[in-house]
Amino acid sequence: MRLSTVILPIHRWGEGQRVWRRAEELGFHAAYTYDHLSWRSFRDRPWFGAVPTLTAAATATHTIRLGTMVTSPNFRHPVTLAKELMTLDDVSEGRLTVGIGAGGTGFDATALGQEPWTPRERADRFGEFVPLLDRLLRDEVTTHQGTYYSATEARMLPGCVQRPRLPLFVAATGPRGLRLAAEYGQGWITYGDPRGPREVPAALAPDVVATQLGRLEEACAAVDRDPATLEKVLLEGSTQERPLDSFDAFVDYAGRYAELGVTEIVLHWPVPDSVFDTDMAVFERIATEALAQLPGGTEPPLGLA
Asked: Using CA atoms, how far apart are residues 7 and 287, in angstroms rounded to an integer?
């Protein structure tokens, strides 16, 4: 089991760099940030760009992995995104992990002036987005003509520091997304039931993830892949569970999901006066002591640096 955090891009860098350095000092495996133009209750609050934030974080830290949680086609094109990610992988000296998803219907889903996409169109776009991004990050030159995304002699030199490319973690709960995770992902991400916290009592939340893990195994079997070769990442904060209320509550929470096969839990860095308001002392104790209470401790499951 690994423990990571997601730091919202809400801080002016004078303060933000201290937060990212503190995440490294606390021993988190990775620190991610949301790749949105705005987000829900933070819509009218400060919110900075994900890639510049991660680039700055890469220069302010040394060992912690960095990444998006998650980026999507809502306002990204694979060609320009791949160039930015290749650059960020270089700046971070190979510490980048990219979480990608089909995107939602939030405030920034139509920020470029497009009409809202139907669920089917969103899935169709993601089905093109992931394979093209995979090719761009692997190959020096890519040409592709698609329905939604194309590339003409798109050059990615010198390529990723991590070979054959930086790792992609695919956020998915439906069959098409799970298939993409099985085919292209080094990891899979879930935040629980996509219907939202009001729909599922806290006691049933682990059952939802267990069902998703079963479907992921089926998707892996369909492409002849061993599901044990994927990281299984759980993003905390979108269910009725309250694992950050106390140290013991988190240990119980992490233990339940470790038994299901989750290999990494991502906790939201505390933000006062928000949905992520958490006692910092409890949070830091969880970061430094909780995994030692679990069977297997902090031993990395797949050997990802």
From this structure: 14
What CATH number did the domain enclosing 217 receive? 3.20.20.30
Q: Is residue 298 part of a domain?
A: no
Q: Residue 105 has what pLDDT? A: 84
Give the per-residue pLDDT at 199. 78
Strand partners, 71: 100
303 within domain boundaries: no
- Total number of domains in the chain: 1
Within the chain, which residues score under 50 in pLDDT?
305
Q: What is the pLDDT of residues 193-212, one digit of tens each?
A: 887 767 789 999 999 999 99
Q: By the 8 A CB rule, do 4 and 254 touch?
A: no
